[in-house]
Amino acid sequence: MSKLIVWTYDWVPDGPRGFVRDIRLRWACEEAGFGYSVQTVPFNDRGSDHLARQPFGQVPFLNDGELELFERGAGLLDIARKSEKLMPRDPVGEAQTLQWTIAALNSMEIVTVPWWFLEMTGVKDNHLTGWLESRLDHMERVLMEREWLAAGRFTVADLLMADVLRVVKVRSFGKRTATEAYVARITERPSFKTAHADQMAHFAAGDASRALQNLDESRRYNNFFLVNHTARKGDKP
Fold first, then answer.
1. DSSP string spanning 172-208?
2. For residues 30 and 27, what is the distance between their CA atoms, to the nearest angstrom?
3. Which of 31, 74, 22 is closest to 192 using CA atoms?
4. N or C: which end of the chain has fewer CB within 10 A?
5. Which residues, 6+ apart, have CB-to-CB distance to 97 below 8 Å?
6. Rounded to 5 degrees, what are φ and ψ at 85?
7. Could you write out the three-class secondary structure of 2-19?
């Protein structure tokens, strides 16, 4: 199998760290035991090279040999299809896993992301709250009846659903004991902890790089100022 390349930003602010969605691809690779590397595009100055790889200027995107996938869900499923640990081989188990993977994106995340965004803006009346509450209540009922979403075991569907539900504001919205136990259990998996730690370390390294860049820019400015100031002092009236 060709080595996988996960693309993400070179740096992000503190807030989104640990939640940037390249963690899903990292996590899937860790679960499957696949080797992968991480490459970056600039968080600032998202130029034509980034847009050529990801037409919406987002991350992550995935290289799998000659195959290039810009859509995060497609990248996750590409990894899952290569490992029975993530995607069952029997038709029923595979169909159930695909169903819940798509549900995580199209039935849950489609609500949680805009709701979270409005909450972060400080809006007084978030009109999406009722919709979110309904979807979370439905998930709570499902998770009260089963340990895993599909095939009677951990699959990529659980990986994705747990990542959607672990967002801090979503996780703390209401009291849903089955959902909380589900998220806690899945995020205790060693593969998640490794992927999370690696992402945090990656962006922390970006802090150091930016600090050196800022220092270098400051030195260049100071040198420019000193040269020009000295030249002006030496000018004759």
1. TSS--HHHHHHHHHHHTSHHHHHHHHHHHHHHHHHHH
2. 5
3. 31
4. C
5. 80, 87, 88, 149, 150, 151, 155, 156, 157
6. -65, -25
7. CCEEEEEECCCCCCCCCC
